[in-house]
């Protein structure tokens, strides 16, 4: 089923009444691993917009161009079933193949290192997701600027739980992130309580004021899309790249300016845990056009340098 979606009762939570849902069955052109494909969209284990349940389902709450929607995806490597609720249900189901990597071409990738070849062999279901949505990735990525991952995840949870709205459908607790106007109205003390400094808060406020123009970037090629994002003061190459990796499924959008990635790539490919961005880009040069995929496979290989004490001091500004 490609462009038409069938209504069907959805599973009811805790014995409650069934909620009408749209459904779609989709057969991937090659086996996929739902967890590998979708995990980059999850901002920590308690992300209020994402849930993976014991039955193997992946739930996402999104703010689509048609309005809020909830998507539930289940299935094995060769067949996928999705259910969707809310005003954005049809939009989410239409974008299901792209979300699960249908536009991605893993056959364009040629491993140049044994460790990368092994990682690819062991993870044949890896595909690069494409959400077609910019702000839902851009805002949590801005929250991750210059802080620890835990701090960023905590801020995202607090802000979405406080200012988001209940997601359509049968999953209690799932939230849709705020719309642009609501983000713009978050008072300064709430950013502070969430642990977000003035610089990151101001960047988010500038981004949501340009929300329409930024969402238009979803229809652009990754390079021009990144250039448009970087027109917003406070959004640099790191933030733009991390965004288009998810919104566009960009196989060559390798992250520069990251605290850990150069050392991971350097250690895996050359035994150099102190590699910088320039050294990382040199090592990834044989993968031109597919550098992001190469970096993901390196991360999945398990060959990472021994941990050192964190270089970034954690500061809880919400308690200052």
Automatic annotation (TrEMBL):
Top-level taxon in the UniProt lineage: Bacteria
Keyword terms, alphabetized: DNA damage, DNA repair
Coiled-coil region: none
Ranges where the record places region Disordered: 1-25, 47-70
Keyword DNA damage carried by entry: yes
Record PANTHER family: DNA GLYCOSYLASE (PTHR43003:SF6), DNA-3-METHYLADENINE GLYCOSYLASE (PTHR43003)
Name of this protein: DNA-3-methyladenine glycosylase 2 family protein
